[in-house]
Specification:
Length: 450
């Protein structure tokens, strides 16, 4: 193989698969010495290794003792994930073997990779931009197939392209202003103003749309939080178990049994939801219960859908819920009511009568949840932003451009200055110019080996 084309200082390695017993484990090596090292470990000349071709080989330690029989794949930089020379060793998935391979690598002068270092190097070598690097993180951590789709799409560069397009339109707008600043006659000013303002409106629409996609992306990737609230003993834990179809939460006839928040995941027509059981809301002096009630309130505030539950045998006032959160009002213990009572009790605000115990009405409730999921996911977009960092930068751009577009005078210098700043912020967003602290915080979320 040829010489190293992308110079870097060090060569590092990490286990890229989870530590533990498995059929195989993947150890990745990246850096200028990667291929020299594997050539030493296998007693094969460097030219033996061809780009992207896998070889079944024995690897030996510095004392020439057999470590394992492995599959080796080499990638020559810059045509590798990191842009450096890379080697993948697929060993048997025994932690002792992995440890022995690690010993060989460190004896040969390599060091363990830092968290996210492979992906960070890929970014530094311009194999991917920062938005794509964040997609790698989301791709690895996504809980749902919908989340995987979003991350794959972003990793392919769709979101980056969209962001670049918005930035390009700002660059064009800036060029109109700069042209106006260069020429002396003023009869074109009105025309330029119209063009600049209409282009700003368009940019604002695009950024606003993208900002909105963040919460949808979170719902798609992590699942929608459905939080059950109500007074003690109304049957929240019973409903929680019924929704999950197994007994996860403790049910007793003593009020105040559930003191901690308990959550579990399930799917409803292809969507992931996280069902959350909470402590009953009531006035109490018991410290554990007070803490539970506090947690319930915070769960209520981060809920995507609230199920507000009432015991229909002695209906009490309904608990106030955040106005913007869709809330389903459920009357429980229908099995204890007579037909007459149900009819006279009938109240337009009640969404559904159920019996968590006999499971009557659970299907209707699931139908209502499903309807609310559909509403929460509207509208479907082609691009989703997937990190708080992306959202924060877009919000900042949006804020300053909104302010700019509302100015009563069209001062060319001020427009040029603000638009230039927004263009720079897009560079930050894509990682073209991003401070080291920001990069560190992006990559430190990764684990070693990614
Ligand atoms: N008859 C009847 N009893 C129920 C129903 N749901 C719950 N219960 C009972 O009400 C009591 C309190 O239930 P639990 O789920 O612990 O209420 P929580 O405090 O709101 O979590 C238990 O004795 C349950 O068996 C129901 O639909 N019908
Ligand atoms: Mg409970």
């Amino acid at each position: 193989m040829g010489s190293v084309r992308v110079p870097t200082k060090e060569t590092y390695y990490a286990l890229s698969t989870p530590m533990g017993v498995s059929a195989t484990a993947t150890i990745r090596i990246s850096g200028p010495k990667a291929i020299d090292i594997i050539s030493k470990m296998t007693n094969k000349p460097v030219v033996y290794f061809k780009h992207g071709v896998s070889k079944v080989l024995s690897i030996f330690n510095v004392n020439n003792n057999l470590v394992d029989k492995v599959v080796v794949v080499c990638f020559e930089g810059p045509n590798s994930y990191t842009g450096e020379n890379m080697v993948e060793i697929h060993s048997h998935g025994n932690p002792i073997i992995v440890k022995n391979v690690f010993r060989c690598l460190s004896a040969l002068g390599l060091r363990l990779a830092n968290p996210g270092e492979f992906t960070k190097t890929a970014y530094l070598n311009k194999k991917i931009d920062l938005v794509q690097a964040e997609s790698v993180f989301n791709l690895i951590n996504s809980q749902t197939s919908g989340g995987v789709d979003i991350s794959l799409n972003n990793l392919r560069g769709s979101l980056s392209n969209k962001l670049s397009l918005i930035q390009k339109s700002l660059i064009y707008t800036l060029s109109l202003i700069e042209y106006e600043l260069d020429i002396t006659e003023t009869d074109n000013l009105k025309n330029t103003q119209t063009q600049v303002l209409s282009s700003l409106t368009e940019t604002l629409e695009s950024t606003k749309k993208l900002i909105k996609t963040h919460s949808t992306a979170r719902i798609i990737s992590e699942g929608l939080r459905v939080v059950i609230i109500g007074r003690p003993n109304v049957g929240k834990s019973t409903l929680f178990n019924a929704l999950l179809q197994y007994d996860r939460s403790i049910v007793t006839s003593d009020p105040g049994t559930t003191r901690d928040v308990i959550e579990a995941q399930r799917n409803i027509s292809g969507f992931s939801i996280v069902v959350v059981d909470t402590a009953g809301m009531r006035q109490t002096k018991n410290k554990a219960e007070v803490a539970g009630v506090k947690k319930t309130k915070s769960e209520m505030n981060s809920a995507d859908i609230i199920i507000s539950m009432v015991d229909s045998t002695h209906a009490k006032a309904v608990i106030n819920t955040p106005k913007t959160t869709p809330t389903i009002l459920v009357y429980n213990k229908k099995d204890l009511l007579s037909e007459d009572q149900i009819n006279t009790n009938f109240n337009n605000n009640i969404d559904v009568y159920i019996s968590a115990k006999t499971k009557e009405g659970i299907k209707d409730l699931l139908g209502l949840i499903e309807k609310n999921i559909e509403l929460s996911l509207q509208p479907r977009e082609a691009f989703y932003i997937t990190s708080k960092r992306q959202e924060d930068i877009l919000m900042s751009i949006n804020k300053s451009l909104t302010k700019l577009s509302k100015r009563s005078f069209f001062e060319l210098e001020i427009f040029a200055f603000e638009i230039k700043r927004a263009i720079d912020q897009f560079d930050w967003l894509l990682g073209k110019t991003t401070p080291d602290e920001v990069l560190d915080s992006v990559f430190s979320r990764f684990c070693v080996g990614k």
